[in-house]
Design goal:
By secondary structure, this protein is of the alpha/beta class. The protein has two domains: 3-87 and 233-392, Alkaline Phosphatase, subunit A (3-Layer(aba) Sandwich); 92-229, no CATH class. 32% of the residues lie in helices and 19% in strands. The protein contains 14 helices and 13 strands. It has helices at 3-10, 38-41, 45-51, 70-77, 89-96, 131-141, 197-214, 237-241, 252-260, 272-282, 295-301, 305-324, 369-372, 385-392, and strands at residues 18-23, 55-60, 106-115, 121-123, 150-157, 160-166, 222-229, 245-248, 264-265, 288-293, 329-333, 350-356, 378-381. The chain has an eight-stranded mixed β-sheet with strand order 9-8-10-1-11-12-2-13, with helices on both faces. Strands 3, 4, 5, 6 and 7 form a five-stranded antiparallel β-sheet that branches. Helix 9 (252-260) links the parallel strand 8 (245-248) and strand 9. Helix 10 (272-282) packs parallel to helix 12 and helix 11 (295-301) runs antiparallel to helix 12 (305-324). The protein is globular and about 60 Å long.
């Protein structure tokens, strides 16, 4: 019996409500030995006060030492083993912008990027160009024609876009063209299985035209592709947990991920305050809410320590509104760490709080990486967070006699 089958067997109805608040990329590092992390540098009176009534710990998204992508790390938070489910970024992006994806389509996530005169990447995000500029470039790329395949080029937000290939016998087993570092050229398209060779050739033909079109459009004078994928057919959260679940996220990829596990995706505004207002408006309608804050991750990836700490402070100010809703279980965590020091996702475990009337006790009195190392949750796999939430919500029956 695997993890999800156990949840299917044990879940039981209740009137309780669970709120999972994900501060994307929450975990951090000191800029120098003995210093504070971004979370420790932030002034967070509300989170610290809650920590005294909650239990704390550190969550490990994938496995020890493994740096996670956003898709698999979120999947783990929802209780799905990310090593058992192949979840590509492309399908999440495409579903997140409500594109009518067909079962045989191959979807991929794209970044407009900047390359220098030698063809080496100098900025993987093209200076975070505006969504309007990205939309204009997508219109140009939509004119590309490759025999044997139809391509849809879809703006997402800022430098991000999505690309869908539609045709006969396409295979998503294709390696990324994004080396995920600067100073290197975009990687060539490479099939990861013999059956994907024809698809790889079609993508290569599309890219050759795309590079020519983008060359004059500095800083977005090239592009990177990653996450070739199609819908993996995940069991829904309703089936697994018996929950009526909703997602509140402003960024399309996270909305698409929520759709993959069967959540209703609620319309919301671009700011976290907008998201909290959406939560308040729909609080009576669902058993489970996933609430996503993006900018902790963005500021960490930008290498802006102070800005990331400020985002955490602004989030802290919203906590009283969440508590006023009186969730039976409140989990506050991140999907992964994004230390400003590294300007990237990292393998470091993520500070985590779990609050309920029956959560137990520990000595954690502030919300920080150092404090959470002493918490009752210990260092736990992220896939264990949902079973803990369900137990604290009175939604799991006893196993065995």
């Amino acid at each position: 019996m695997d993890h999800l089958d156990l949840m299917k067997r044990l879940h039981t109805p209740a009137d309780s409500k669970i709120l999972l608040w994900v501060m994307d990329g929450l975990g951090g590092l000191p800029l120098e030995p003995g210093g504070k992390t971004e979370l420790e540098a932030a002034v967070t009176p509300n989170l610290d006060r809650l920590a005294q009534d909650a239990v704390g710990g550190l969550s490990c998204p994938i496995a020890t030492g493994i740096t996670p992508g956003s898709g698999p790390s979120h999947l783990a938070l929802f209780g799905y083993d990310p090593l058992a489910w192949d979840l590509g970024r492309g399908v999440m992006e495409v579903l997140g912008i409500d594109f009518p994806l067909q079962d045989a389509d191959v979807a991929v996530r794209g970044n407009f990027c900047t390359v220098d005169d030698a063809g080496l990447i100098s900025d993987r995000r093209a200076g975070r160009i505006s969504t309007d500029k990205s939309t204009e470039l997508c219109r140009l790329l939509q004119e590309i024609r490759v025999p044997g395949v139809e391509a849809f080029v879809l703006p997402v937000r800022e430098h991000r876009f999505a690309l869908v290939f539609r045709g006969a016998s396409l295979d998503p087993r294709i390696a990324d063209t994004d080396p995920q570092v600067v100073g290197k050229a975009p990687l060539p398209v490479r099939a990861l299985a013999d059956e994907a060779a024809a698809t790889a050739a079609l993508v290569t033909a599309w890219l050759e035209q795309a590079y020519q079109i983008l060359a004059p459009h500095h800083p977005a004078n090239s592009l990177l592709l990653r996450g070739f994928s199609r819908d993996p057919g995940l069991p829904t959260m309703s089936d697994v947990y018996g929950l009526k679940a909703a997602a509140i996220a402003s960024y399309p990829m996270y909305r698409g991920l929520a759709k993959l596990v069967g959540m209703d995706v609620l319309s919301t505004g671009p700011t976290f305050a907008d998201e909290v207002s959406t939560l308040e408006e729909h609080w009576s309608e669902y058993d489970f809410f996933y609430l996503h804050l993006k900018y902790t991750d963005s500021r960490g990836e930008d290498g802006d320590f102070g800005a990331k700490a400020k985002v955490i402070e602004e989030a802290d100010a919203m906590l009283p509104r969440l508590l006023a809703l009186k969730p039976d279980v409140l989990i506050i965590t991140g999907d992964h760490s994004s230390p400003a020091r590294l300007k990237a996702h990292s393998w470091h475990p993520v500070p985590t709080l779990l609050y309920s009337a029956v959560c137990g006790v520990d000595g954690v009195s502030v919300f920080s990486e150092r404090a959470c190392t002493t918490g009752a949750l210990g260092v736990l796999p992220a896939v264990d967070i949902m079973p803990l939430a369900m137990a604290n919500a009175g939604r799991l029956a006893k196993f065995g006699a």
